[in-house]
Amino acid sequence: MTVLSGRRSFAIVLVLTVSCVFIFCEYLIYFPAILQCSWPETDHLDSGKPVPILHALFLSDTHLLGAIRGHWFDKLRREWQMERAFQTAVLLLRPEVVFILGDVFDEGKWSSTKDWRDDVRRFRQIFRHPRDTELIVLVGNHDIGFHYEMDSFKLQRFEDVFNVTSAMIVTKKGVNFLLVNSVAMHGDGCPICQAVENELFRLSEALNCSMGSSSTAREHCHDTQQFPSSLPIILQHYPLFRTSDANCTGQDAAPPEQRHLLFKEQYDVLSQEASQKLLWWFQPRLILSGHTHSACEVIHENKYPEISVPSFSWRNRNNPSFILGTFSSTSFLLSKCFLPEESSVVAIYCATAMAATLLLLVHFHLFKGTLQFTSCLVGKHKSL
């Protein structure tokens, strides 16, 4: 009876231990990681007057797998990681607005109508959010295809689902965010590209008029859309033109062996011409982009800062992260929040499996010895 009781107790302890490790790795591990993050502090005063402060969270390149290339276990593992990370971040940090900087889906450029609906359903489950948090999604090349794969059907279904357009300004607490479909910034005069450029030019004129700095057609300013008098923050998927990631540093920058690889215009980054247009038209105080899956900080023309936001998914990097931004109409501060590393979680599981296996071997070896000792005693008792 004592032997059976010992076996039962051992089994219970083992199951409880494995369960605790599972709960920690799949749920609790995100809390200590994100609890280390906080909103950067900025000055709440402008000329002695209080100004509204906006808290915005930025992430990129979630790449939800589709029906063609997505293995079921890969989907399960990486999408669960993003869901728990996002839900924990929203719970603990309470952002007012969340921006996803494109490549939401991995196979949007190929998806059938049925597969697209399934991808959207999973997206809404993973990135569900409270009513006091707004979610704004930008388009990326994997959502609608690269320039020559892009068509009005794929673009329209994306814009219909996420209620965005290819060129629009979203204003929050006096902060102007310019959302750009960077896939359409090809400059070849294609119908979608031309429509986006025309709308961007119109928005630049409206912003210039709102700031009282329009250099052309001042008499038409009264007919333009009005925005707060604040330089915009450009949000897009492709980074502005840069030759490579050679000058990028930090633990989430591209690996050293990849940093000196030259970028291809209109594929890895925007063309020089398109980049110059955006800088000249809007003179942004900040640019935030994605696409490369790695972090980088660039200063264009010594005055326009750009931050490349790394991928949010374990599928694209071992150490995903997101950006926290505190904004007013005149200033901003950014900080980065790292998620748990996938390698750390795998190491915990491997260590647990090895320890459990070792304990099982030791336990059953001792149990076998106990049985032999008991049998020996019983045999001696019978002989007496």
UniProtKB/TrEMBL annotation:
One Pfam family it belongs to: Metallophos
Stored InterPro entries: Calcineurin-like_PHP, Metallo-depent_PP-like, MPP_MPPE1, PGAP5/Cdc1/Ted1
Main location: endoplasmic reticulum
Domain named Calcineurin-like phosphoesterase: residues: 57-294
UniProt membrane topology term: Multi-pass membrane protein
Keyword Mitochondrion attributed: no
Keyword Zinc in record: no
Gene Ontology CC entries for this record: endomembrane system; endoplasmic reticulum-Golgi intermediate compartment membrane
Transmembrane segments: 12-33, 53-72, 345-367
A Gene Ontology BP annotation from the UniProt entry: GPI anchor biosynthetic process
Record key words, sorted: ER-Golgi transport, GPI-anchor biosynthesis, Hydrolase, Manganese, Membrane, Metal-binding, Transmembrane, Transmembrane helix, Transport
GO terms of molecular function: metal ion binding; phosphoric diester hydrolase activity
Family listed: Belongs to the metallophosphoesterase superfamily. MPPE1 family.
Protein known as: Metallophosphoesterase 1
Organism expressing this protein natively: Megalops atlanticus (Tarpon)
Source lineage: Eukaryota, Metazoa, Chordata, Craniata, Vertebrata
